[in-house]
Each structure stands twice: as C-alpha cells, then as structure tokens.
Specification:
- The protein has about 600 residues and is an alpha/beta fold.
- Helices cover about 40% and strands about 15% of the residues.
- The chain folds into three domains: about 270 residues, Rossmann fold (3-Layer(aba) Sandwich); about 170 residues, Rossmann fold; about 130 residues, 3-Layer(aba) Sandwich (Rossmann fold), CATH 3.40.50.920.
C-alpha cells in the first residue's frame, strides 16, 4: 500500500472524530494513524494561514493520548499559553472550523472558555495553568466532585514566577492535579536558566532523577518520550488511577513532523504562510521596509557600542524584540531572563542603582505582568529605567490576550514616569538616543507591531526635548491631536479630504508629561478638538486631555477616538482598526461627518 492510500485512511479516521467520545471508541492500534492525519492537517491548514505551528506539531500525540485516556470534558484539561492546543481544538469538534483559526469571526488561536466546553480555562500568557488547575481541584474537593485536573505546561513557562508559586502551594495540598511538563527546550526562543539546565541533566542522565519536584512534595515520573504513543497511553493510564498532586515529565520535539520546523524552531514557532510539502516560507516584505522591533534593536546596538553603561533586558523574547544582534555582540550586556517579567523589571532597577542604563524591552501585553515592580521598584525610587514597549496597540490575530491597548492607561497614573509615544521611526530612534544623554526619571516608549518605511530611519540621531509635542499641519477651525503612529493614519486621511484646510494636526509626542505650552493655544484657538489613539479610551491619552481641559476650565467639545471599553477580538489588524474607525478611511469619514454637521 502506498503512502497516499495510508494517509487517506488516516484522514478518514480523523474526519470521523467529532468529539473525544468518538476518539475513545477507536482501538489503540489506530491512534498513530490519527496522529499522522492530525499533524498533516495542522501543517496544511497553517501553510495557508498563520498561526503557532511548531508548538502544536510537538503535542499531537499528547493531545490524542490525553483525550483518549481521560474523560474530557468532565476531567478538566488546561493548556498553558495555548500555542500548543491546535490538535486539542481539532479533536474537540472544531476541525471543520480550523480554516477560520485566528481570523475575525473564527476560532481563537488560544483556548477560550466560551468557544468550547473542552477549553476549561482561557490562556494566552505563560505560567497560569497550574494555579488555575489547583483552584479548580480545590473547588472540586469542596463541592464533592470526583474528577482529574490536568495542566500541560512547557519547560519555558514552568520557570515563570507564577508557576513556581503554584507548585509551591500544590505540594502542600491533596488536590487531584496532574502537571504535565512538556519539555522541548524551547519557548519562542530557546529556554534559558538553571531549571532548563536541570531538565537537560535529567534527560541525559536519568539517575539525577527528580529531586527538585520531590523537594516540593510532588511525586515525579519521567522523562517519557512524548511522541511514543504506547508509552504515553501507558503512563497516562497509570496517572488516571492515581489521585493527588503529581508531575509527569515528557520530552517532545517542537515542529515534529516537518523537517524545516524541527531544525529551525525559532522561525517556525509562528512562520506565516509556507509550502506545506517543503516547509519553505513565503517571501517576506521587500527591503524598503523594516520592523519597529528591529529599529529598536539596531539603534540600541549602535548606542551600546559607544556607551558601556547601556544594558538590554528581555523576558524570553530576544528574536521578537529585535535583540539577537546585540545579544551576539554583547552577551554580558543583553540578557534574556526567561518568562519572568517581574524579575526583568526589578533586575533593571537594580542595575540602575549602580549607574547603568537598562533598556527593558518588553511587549505591551506582557508589561502588564510587572505592574507592581514598575511602581514600587522603579518609579517610587525615580530610577532611570527605559521601558521599550513593543506591540503597543492592536496586534491582530493573537487577539485580546495580546492586544497592547492598556499600557497608557495603567502607566499614566504612576508618578515619576514619563510616557513617550513616537509618531515615526526617526522619533523612536531619537528617544532611544536621548535616554542615554540625560535621563533622570523612568521612561516608557511605546511603539507598534509591524513594518514601517526604511526611509523613515535616520543615521543621524538627535536629542529631543522631554515632554514636547509638535504641530504637523495648520488648520482653521478644528484641531486633531494624534497619539503615536496614529499620526500617520491622520495624515493619510487628509490626502483625500477637500476640507482638510479646516483641520490643524498636532502630534502629542508625550502622554506624560503633557505639553501644556502646546495645549493652551490649541484650546484657545480652535472650536473643537479630536483625540486619536490606538489605546483604551478609559484612562488613556484622551482622558489626560479631558483632565487638562477640566483643570483649566476649557469648555470646547472634545471627541475621543480609540479602543472602546471592551476586549477586541482576534483578526486581521487592518480590518480590526477599520471596524474601530481608526484607519485612514474611518478617520476621513469622521472628519467629513463633522464638517457636514457644522457647515456655516
């Protein structure tokens, strides 16, 4: 029998699985065939769209075995982060909808409670599932329910501080929680830290065994080959007959089944579109564009060559934050601390007390996890730490767990902290340069995901004035105040607007401190003000303008345009901005509406 015939048989087996009850009716002998079809379906689906490929390829056998052995959804299954849950989604009634993955109106790229009863807990950030599973297990004990609680967590995520806290608590209980450590030595980038070294030692020499987990009063089993279906079924059946807290250590290969994804695990974490047969990636944007993250990385590398006090810190995102080149050039001055955002911020604070200038490069959505450290360890002590806040604004297909829309609101109320919102690449570069010239207070610089024109970058860096905005376009009746790169969308809106002369356009530059020398003439000159920002309206930059107006008794109408008081779904980022009225066409329509209502 040829491969095509065997694959057709495997595919037919997968297509009949409408839920795990059907899977559990299959004989064990056919499960490897189901795994083959499931892996091929993931590859073919993600080749056409975009998603987290490598992680889900690595958990195909585990996904099948868990649903085969345990009585889901009565037994509760949690996937930490959720990058690895695509096989789980297909086995739980969402195979036919998988083509809509991460698209507007389609299924989420992460576990989502309202999407399926099999998604016991919504995830998206690392290190949460052991805490959640323990909370569920303690609830079951109080309520008299008999069920299993399984938390699947990776070797990068388990090093997160919250996961350590949960393990420390779990070991003091009798809660029926099985922690499955999915050890592939990778997060998005390679895992780092002493715990990772310990896991490597366990895998290489089983006699070193499990003293770490046993010291936390957690019975340990493993390491087990996570791609050996028979071994997986056997060990999970053993755990099904056990109760109480325990940990199973599995060894898997990220990207399993696609050779290029196995060999280039960083690239194929979320590769974009690719050839499903060869794995070859589709062409990327042309050389006339550059990612904002790479602007930051290249600028910091240039500055670090001249300034020995510059340090860079990233919590497990050297590639995504554009820091790979700096890490190679200055391995002692560019540090990956793993998935440990709180530690990253206080590590930076410690460096700042000793005269160094740390740049903490972190995604907006992950900065949320270090809020106490920002307030208590940095701002309270007036330490010159620079927060380079990547992925600020709408990020698209990763959805509400990853949109960076809250940072202005939660940072604006923190004393001693400056918040800069560069409108373009050149201002971003100049802010980084200026920080190493005369920074005396902590500084947050927020910039979006994606590309900008390479021509916007400058080889000549200049010192800027802190807390200053600027006039971009003069106007007669109304004033627009834009925040960050929203300035570019406003400028594009003017190109097709016959009444553009009525509107002045100002770049806010900084949300904190506000440029009062700029704002007073605006309020004294124009009859209406519109604020555009790619952040939450509640507590955001527009709120700061309202507070300014109230403080100084200005009574002109102020329209706020930004992210409403709701979580924004996943989808194409341009389409999401269009629905929010924050794209150039939406801005143009709003300006036309305003002028039509107020014609003299």
């Amino acid at each position: 029998m040829g491969f095509a015939y065997l694959y057709d048989m495997s595919k037919a087996l997968l297509e009949k699985i409408t839920d795990p009850y059907v899977l559990r009716a299959y004989p064990r002998e056919v499960l490897p065939e189901v795994a083959t079809a499931l892996r091929e379906t993931i590859i073919n689906s993600l080749a056409k769209g975009e998603g987290h490929l490598g992680s889900s390829l690595g958990t195909v056998e585990l996904s099948i075995a868990l649903h085969y052995v345990f009585n889901t959804p009565e037994d509760l299954l949690l996937w930490d982060v959720g990058h690895q849950a695509y096989g789980h989604k297909m086995l739980t009634g969402r195979r036919e909808d998988f083509q809509t993955l991460r698209q507007e109106g389609g299924i989420s790229g992460f576990p989502k409670r309202e999407e399926s009863p099999y998604d016991a807990f919504g995830t998206g950030h690392a290190g949460t599932t052991i805490s959640a599973a323990l909370g569920m297990a303690l609830s079951a004990k109080i309520q008299g329910h008999q069920r299993h609680h399984i938390a699947v967590i990776g070797d990068a995520s388990i090093a997160n501080g919250m996961a350590f806290e949960a393990l420390n608590h779990l070991g003091t209980t009798t809660a029926n929680v099985l922690v499955i450590l999915n050890d592939n030595s990778m997060g998005i980038d390679p895992s780092v830290g002493a715990l990772k070294d310990y896991f490597d030692a366990v895998k290489n020499d089983k006699t070193t065994l499990s003293n770490f987990f046993q010291s936390l009063n957690l019975p340990y089993s493993g390491p087990i080959d996570g791609h050996d279906m028979d071994a997986l079924l056997s060990v999970l059946e053993t755990h099904k007959n056990q109760k109480g807290p325990r940990l199973l250590h599995l060894v898997t290969l990220k990207g399993k089944g696609l050779p290029l994804a196995e060999n280039e695990q960083i690239t194929y974490h979320a590769p974009g579109k690719f050839d499903p047969l060869t794995g070859k990636l589709n062409p990327k944007p042309t050389n006339d564009k550059i990612k904002y993250q790479d602007i930051v990385g290249q600028t910091l590398l240039k500055l670090a060559k001249e300034n020995p006090k510059i340090m860079a810190i990233t919590p497990a995102m050297p590639t995504g934050s554009g820091l790979v080149a700096m890490m190679e050039a200055f391995p002692d001055r560019c540090i990956d601390v793993g998935i440990a955002e709180q530690h990253a911020v206080t590590l930076a604070a410690g460096m700042a007390t000793q005269g160094l200038l740390p740049f903490c490069v972190i995604y907006s959505t992950f900065l949320q996890r270090s809020y106490d450290q920002i307030i208590h360890d940095v701002a309270l002590q007036k330490l010159p730490v620079v927060f380079c806040i990547d992925r600020a604004g709408i990020v698209g297909h990763d959805g509400p767990t990853h949109h960076g829309v809250f940072d202005i609101a939660f940072l604006r109320c923190v004393p001693n902290l400056m918040i800069a919102v560069p409108r373009d690449a050149q201002m971003l570069q100049n802010l980084l340069f200026s920080a190493q010239v005369d920074l005396e207070l902590p500084l947050a610089i927020r910039y979006p995901r994606g590309f900008t024109e390479l021509a916007e970058c400058s080889s000549r860096l200049e010192k800027i004035k802190w807390g200053k905005g600027s006039l971009l376009k003069e106007g007669k009746r109304y004033a627009i105040l834009s925040v960050g790169t929203m300035a570019q969308s406003v400028q594009r809106a003017f190109l097709n607007f016959e009444a553009a002369e009525l509107f002045a356009h100002y770049d806010l530059g900084f949300v904190k401190p506000l440029d009062e020398d700029l704002l007073h003439p605006i309020f004294q000159t124009y009859e209406r003000l519109i604020v555009y920002e790619e952040g939450t309206l509640l507590g955001g930059a527009g709120s700061a303008i309202l507070e300014f107006a109230a403080t100084h008794n200005y009574a002109i109408p102020i329209d706020l345009k930004g992210i409403p008081d709701q979580f924004i779904s996943h989808g194409n980022p341009q389409k999401l901005l269009q629905k929010l009225g924050l794209d150039p066409e939406g801005i143009l329509a709003n300006l036309k509406l305003l002028t039509n209502k107020n014609k003299e």
